[in-house]
């Protein structure tokens, strides 16, 4: 089963003197995930100041700057993993360094049985 582990944290959550260690922790986590065979994909995202939101209303495409979620925490990255159970996904989510200061959302991937005709 595949799960998306979405990493949310508030900007500036990591004190500057801890950022190098946090990056080492992330590299170690990613390596452990790869070595386990559960890693499918993962990336960090640029800050929300680079984001655009797109909507189509009455045939018109509307593009606005940034997401406008009512929360301090922002989506900062993700891991896509392939594991045997939700319990396994929870264990991997708890190991993500940002779980110590933010929130990791676990979402099971929908697998469609067939492509549309």
CATH class: Alpha Beta
Coarse structural class? alpha+beta
As for the CATH topology, it is: Alpha-Beta Plaits
- Distance between the first and last residues' Cα: 25 Å
In one word, what is the shape?
flat
The overall average pLDDT, rounded, is 89
Task: Please compute the radius of gyration using only Cα atoms.
Answer: 17 Å
β-strand amount: 35-45%
Number of helices: 2
Question: How many structural domains can be distinguished in the coordinates?
Answer: 1
CATH architecture: 2-Layer Sandwich
**Biggest β-sheet: strands ordered side by side in the sheet:** 2-5-1-6
Order of helices and strands: EHEEEEHE
Short description:
This protein is of the alpha+beta class and 117 residues long. It has helices spanning 19-36, 86-95, and strands at residues 2-9, 39-44, 52-57, 60-65, 74-82, 103-108. The longest helix is centred in the first third of the chain and has 18 residues, at 19-36.
If you had to describe this structure to a student in words, what would you say it looks like?
- The chain is of the alpha+beta class and 117 residues long.
- The protein has one domain: 2-Layer Sandwich (Alpha-Beta Plaits).
- The chain is built from 2 helices and 6 strands.
- Strand 3 and strand 4 form a beta hairpin.
- The model has no long low-confidence stretch (mean pLDDT 89).
Write the layout of secondary structure elements.
Blueprint: E1 2-9, H1 19-36, E2 39-44, E3 52-57, E4 60-65, E5 74-82, H2 86-95, E6 103-108
Antiparallel strand pairs: 1-5, 1-6, 2-5, 3-4
């Amino acid at each position: 089963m595949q799960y998306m582990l979405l990493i949310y944290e508030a900007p500036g959550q990591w004190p500057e003197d801890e950022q190098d260690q946090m990056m080492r922790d992330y590299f170690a986590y990613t390596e452990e995930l790869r070595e386990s065979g559960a890693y499918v994909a993962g990336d960090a995202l640029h800050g929300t100041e680079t984001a655009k939101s797109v909507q189509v209303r009455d045939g018109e495409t509307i593009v606005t700057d940034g997401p406008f979620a009512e929360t301090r925490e922002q989506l900062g990255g993700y891991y896509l993993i392939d594991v045997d159970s939700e319990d396994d996904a929870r264990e991997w989510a708890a190991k993500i360094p940002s779980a110590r200061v933010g929130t990791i959302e676990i979402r099971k991937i929908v697998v469609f049985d067939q492509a549309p005709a």
